[in-house]
Amino acid sequence: MTVTLFGPGWFVVLLAVAAVGVLAHLVLRGRTMGRRRRGLAVLAGVDVLASVVFHVAYLTDPDVHFPLWQNLPLHLCTIVSYLVLPAVLTTYRPVQTLCFFPGAVAGLLACFSAAPMYFGHDLLSAKTCFFVAHLLNFVIPVLMASLGLYRPTYADAARAVLYAVVLGLTVLPVTLLLRAVADPGANYMFVFDPEGAALLEAFHRLVPVPVLYLVPLIVAVLPVFVLQVWVYRRAAGVRTAAPSAPGSLTPAAG
Fold first, then answer.
1. pTM of the entire predicted model
2. Where are the transmembrane segments (predicted)?
């Protein structure tokens, strides 16, 4: 079975990861907070493993253009795949916010708007881990909220935009250095080119200028982040924002 957008293989992956998410919620919801964190840590470990596996699969395929210097773990989704582990094991709110808002949205959208190179392979190929990793980037933050590890607020939605911009500006000098000394095609966070991603292509057509074409995207995501909070509050029956303590990078108790 071949994985194509909206094809049977694609739906199998989506439904399988969604089923894992639902099962994880049902199994962990009656557990202590410590057990919930450890349970989600297992999924976070799978996320990291899936990210590594699909990168290796593409890097070792001579028929695919997937250069090493263009695919270091510096893209937003790859960074989030590594951040979900500290997000579920600690109470450090900035990391949780980054994972819940831009991380989850980008992970889900990647499955719908990925470049053509990520489709057309067999369902059982290691390349399918691309979709597994990106879907877990969505599922794990949702579970963080549904299991009470993270309570998003409208203020968090605004901060998430800032965190994403800061992350992008942090990665930009590395991208520029790599373009100068290693590979002129380095394009982390897609600041220079959308590289076939359908959604980013739309913004690039609107503003065909490197870096600047992402500005409308930054503006457009805030309502999406606000909608995430609204959905959470409706689902949880929350009437007033109740953020967790500021937190730290130390493991949570329990």
1. 0.89
2. 6-28, 40-60, 72-92, 99-119, 131-150, 162-182, 211-232
